[in-house]
């Protein structure tokens, strides 16, 4: 789960990370009021779950409250990587002597959280990694012991020479690590971590990605979810316990299991079609899930054909068949449906479907070809 | 022969009285797996289905039965503790079926398992099956048949799909292993490939990877250097958009890393057979056996 910059900053402030104050505005007037309150130059920053906000024009320096208002009116409602900006953060501008990058990422290869720090901050760290990898220090942390003071100091010395700044940075490393662990993050970043001309080390931006698997034990973090920043169909799917990702194609896919769901999308593409979504109904047998899945898929006006691909292991195919029958009685389909099912209780499922006027096949390849052809006819 | 499990496997089911644990314990017993004990704290002394003894702790279960393997069906927030408990009790093979285990929990579990010399398979996996001998987990037994193809996969139902097609085409399996869809898992592709290479029954390997991480690339390099047996690979997620978690916690393209294209390229560079569709495994394996 992504959270916004202002939310990540709040978590890090609680750990003691020095961060300039800031307030969130949803209207230009609010932005102006906040700027007035702080006085001086402020930064107006789009709060949206996308990188490259600065390049997209979503971060602006405002010299006066009226300028803050003007920028806020431009940024609010702006599209950044397909997402609409609904909120801006207004924060006093800081004096910057140098910029560094500090991040912790849950690394698959070392199977540990890995600190990544670089004195070349303020820019895209992937770019630094590609062009000047020697400017990045990576340090894996054994979570059974946590970040040790000597490690934090070593990270600090990679960023600064002055011992006072090193000590401040080392403390921030500890605080960032604490926030990362407490919130159940898979990524936590401060970019930039700046040194001011006065010699203070301060975090000017923060990003956190939370491991979805942690949300059950962190209800306070789960409550930070901003549903307005997501596609409505994905919110609806999550509330129905379905894993759904909207795509741009016209073949709606309903599959059990993530691997098979991906393979089904790939096969749609292989036969010249475009999948409209990724949708995994999961392992359990529940006709209600099928009903919800069909509701979400049929709400997408791009969908020209629906493809079911079910391999019954734990999933009982008769439950899926009953779900299809129930759902289409409630809301008759306007687009053709192709059903492939095989495995547990296949004979019963086929009988249920036939009695209700559906045909089904047990062959995945054949079903995908047919769904692609039907979508093309309708397009 | 086979890898990891066989006739000598003696199994503990952790969470045997739960909804999933009880259902699959029955299925494993029906398949012929030697389920020697169950563990549910507070239900020690009772029996599952009037036969399998239930214990309060894994240590008690091991002391009484000398079981060598454990399978875990406990809820996600308790799964890490259940793995640690099994390993601490001296169980050598631990199979964690549970989906949704926090990844940070696994950063503590993984080094402990390694230090104790145990093997963990999963979490978030369908388990494994040696057809005709033993199944540990949730892979449907009736789609498998004994034979010489080793199967290893990050996915559940996609594996069933491929195994079912192999079985129908007369290509039996030595062992099928689902290593799971999480970013940190106990056993990776290379562990399984090395075991298949050393297993006399296995003549060829079918490998199903997916987007996210670099485990498949590492496996391809291993195959090129260390394997004489033919391997056919498939990658799911060619149409997946970057930055989105495709159901499995580990199935995510980060930046430009972990794409299907780079994995397929690695397979080709290693001289492997590349299945473009799940149904291509049959022909590609037949040509290599």
Outline the structure in words.
The complex is a heterodimer of chains A (379) and B (289). Chain A is an alpha+beta fold. Chain A is 39% helix and 24% strand. In chain A, strands 7, 8, 9, 10, 11 and 12 form a six-stranded antiparallel β-sheet that branches. Chain A has a four-stranded antiparallel β-sheet with strand order 1-6-2-3, with helices on one face. The mean pLDDT of chain A is 94. Chain B is built from nine helices and 14 strands. Chain B is globular and about 55 Å long. The mean pLDDT of chain B is 96. The interface between A and B is large, with 50 and 60 residues.
Report the order of strands and helices of chain B. EHEEEHEHEHEEEEHEHEHEHEH
Q: How would you classify the helix and strand content of chain B by structural class?
A: alpha/beta
Which structural category fits the helices and strands of chain A? Answer: alpha+beta
Approximate shape of chain B: globular
Work out the largest interface and the residue count of each chain.
Answer: A-B, 50 and 60 residues
Quaternary organisation:
heterodimer
The pLDDT mean of chain B sits at 96
Q: Shape of chain A from CA axes?
A: elongated
Per DSSP E runs of 2 or more residues, the count of β-strands of chain A stands at 18
The Cα radius of gyration of chain A reads: 25 Å
Number of helices of chain B: 9
Distance between the termini of chain A: 35 Å
As residue ranges, the low-confidence spans of chain A are: none
For the largest beta-sheet of chain A, the strand count, sense and barrel status come to:
6 strands, antiparallel
The fraction of residues assigned to DSSP E strands of chain B is: 15-25%
Q: What strand order characterises the main sheet of chain B? A: 3-4-2-1-5-6-7
Instruction: Briefly note the CATH topology name of the largest domain in chain A.
Output: Rossmann fold
Question: CATH superfamily of the largest domain in chain A, please?
Answer: Succinyl-CoA synthetase domains
Number of strands of chain B: 14
Low-confidence stretches of chain B: none
Mean pLDDT across residues of chain A: 94
């Amino acid at each position: 789960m992504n959270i916004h910059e202002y939310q990540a900053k709040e978590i890090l402030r609680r750990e003691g990370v020095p961060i300039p104050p800031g307030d969130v505005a949803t209207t230009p007037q609010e932005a102006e009021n906040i700027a007035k309150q702080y006085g001086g130059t402020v930064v107006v920053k789009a709060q949206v779950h996308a990188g490259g906000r600065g390049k997209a024009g979503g971060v602006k320096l405002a010299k006066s409250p009226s300028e803050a208002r003007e920028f806020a009116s431009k940024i609010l409602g702006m599209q950044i990587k397909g997402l609409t900006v609904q909120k801006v953060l207004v924060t006093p501008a800081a004096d910057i002597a140098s910029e560094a990058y500090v991040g912790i990422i849950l690394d698959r290869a070392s199977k540990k959280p890995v600190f990544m720090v670089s004195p070349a901050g303020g820019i895209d760290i992937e770019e630094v990694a590609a062009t000047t990898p020697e400017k990045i220090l990576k340090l894996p942390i054994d979570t059974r012991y946590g970040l040790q003071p000597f490690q934090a100091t070593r990270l600090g010395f990679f960023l600064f020479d002055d011992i006072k700044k090193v000590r401040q940075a080392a403390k921030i490393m500890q605080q960032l690590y604490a926030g990362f662990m407490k919130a159940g993050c898979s990524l936590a970043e401060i970019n930039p971590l700046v040194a001011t001309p006065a010699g203070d080390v301060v975090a000017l931006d923060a990003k956190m990605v939370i491991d979805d698997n942690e949300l059950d034990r962190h209800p306070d973090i789960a409550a930070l979810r901003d549903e307005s920043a997501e596609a409505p169909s994905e919110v609806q799917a999550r509330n129905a316990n379905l894993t759904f990702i909207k795509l741009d194609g016209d073949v709606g896919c309903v599959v059990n299991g993530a691997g098979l769901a991906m393979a089904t999308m790939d096969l749609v593409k292989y036969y010249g079609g475009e999948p409209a979504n990724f949708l995994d109904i999961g392992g359990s047998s529940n006709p209600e899930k099928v009903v919800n899945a069909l509701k979400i898929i049929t709400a997408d006006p791009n969908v020209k054909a629906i493809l079911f691909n079910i391999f019954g292991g734990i999933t009982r195919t008769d439950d899926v068949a009953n779900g299809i029958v129930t759902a289409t009685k409630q809301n008759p389909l306007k687009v053709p449906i192709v059903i492939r099912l095989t495995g547990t209780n296949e004979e019963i499922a086929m009988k249920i479907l036939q009695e209700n006027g559906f045909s089904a096949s047990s062959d995945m390849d054949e079903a995908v070809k047919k769904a692609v052809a039907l979508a093309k006819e309708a397009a | 022969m086979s890898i990891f499990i066989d006739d000598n496997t003696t199994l503990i089911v952790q969470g045997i009285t739960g909804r999933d644990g009880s259902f699959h314990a029955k299925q494993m017993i029906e398949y012929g797996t030697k389920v020697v004990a169950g563990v549910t704290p507070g239900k020690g002394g009772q029996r599952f289905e009037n036969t399998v003894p239930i214990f309060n702790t894994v240590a008690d279960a091991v002391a009484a039965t000398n079981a060598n393997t454990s399978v875990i069906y406990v809820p996600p927030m308790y799964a890490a503790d259940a793995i640690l408990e099994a390993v601490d009790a001296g169980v050598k093979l631990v199979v964690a079926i549970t989906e949704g285990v926090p990844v940070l929990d696994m950063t503590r579990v993984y080094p402990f398992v390694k230090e104790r010399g145990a093997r963990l398979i999963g979490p978030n996996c369908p388990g494994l099956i040696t057809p005709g001998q033993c199944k540990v987990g949730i892979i449907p037994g009736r789609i498998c048949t004994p034979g010489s193809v080793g199967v290893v996969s990050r996915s559940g139902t996609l594996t069933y799909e491929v195994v079912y097609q192999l079985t129908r085409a007369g290509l039996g399996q030595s062992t099928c292993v689902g290593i799971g869809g999480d970013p940190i898992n106990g056993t990776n592709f290379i562990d399984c490939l090395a075991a298949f290479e050393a297993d006399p029954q296995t003549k060829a390997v079918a490998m199903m990877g997916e987007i996210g991480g670099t485990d498949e690339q590492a496996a391809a390099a291993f195959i090129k250097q260390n394997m004489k047996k033919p391997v056919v690979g498939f990658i799911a997620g060619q149409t997946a958009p970057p930055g989105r978690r495709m159901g499995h916690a580990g199935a995510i393209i980060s930046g430009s890393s972990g794409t299907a294209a780079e994995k397929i390229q690695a397979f080709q560079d290693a001289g492997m057979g590349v299945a473009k569709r799940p149904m291509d495994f049959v022909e590609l394996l037949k040509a290599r056996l």
